[in-house]
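Appendix B. One record, verbatim.
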Amino acid sequence: MRQVEFDGKGNRIRWTEIPGEGPARVYLHGLGSMSAVYHAHIVARPELTGRRSLLMDLPGHGTSDRPEHFGYTLEEHADAVAAALDRAAIAGAELTGHSMGGAVAIVLAHRRPDLVGRLVLAEANLDACPPPTAGSSGIAAHDEEEFVAGGYARVLEAVGPLWAATMRLADPRALHRSAAGLRRGSDPVMRTILEGLPIERVYLQGEESGALDGRERLEAAGVRVVTVPGAGHNIMFDNPEAFAAAVAGQY
């Protein structure tokens, strides 16, 4: 495990690093998750071994610190990841981001284009104000103090054992602020940034999640959109073969 300070106050973002050749692959998890749980089995697949790989835990999640003063906006998450990549002396990385992690990856590519050479996005949030059924909307619908006091426990009961297993490791205040930041979106919004990025971009949409809004516009902007059969939101669990193939550039 590696670490670096990200906020000027001694708090550290942490990641598990697997040595190998470059360019490095960096994996970013979604809201209330942690990277090793969602991506370690992908990194270990034969088509992906031999490459330097970083399994990054965003601030407030997993093994990373969870400062109370931090805002946990998409921009702040992206800057924390940038601090990690700078410490690791990485440029032109291949970023794989799931859900909120995909939104963070897009914002990072906009703010620090030197750090990102390719994006693989698994059902990344592209727009502000997700639908009410989205987990982030449900969390952000609470007042922050009410969520910390009792809403967090109710959400853990409602999300099911798989998501709760990692969500209970996230700081409640960090979780709420991350959800609120995701609901607010970035400026420019993530979809607009993605359409304009001059790098290879792959977007994975689970077949069971339904059609991707604005697919034609994304494809017209050069984004390769792939519908993954037999998969819902957690594509890396539902169809790990397809997920790994996309990361490896074979899909």
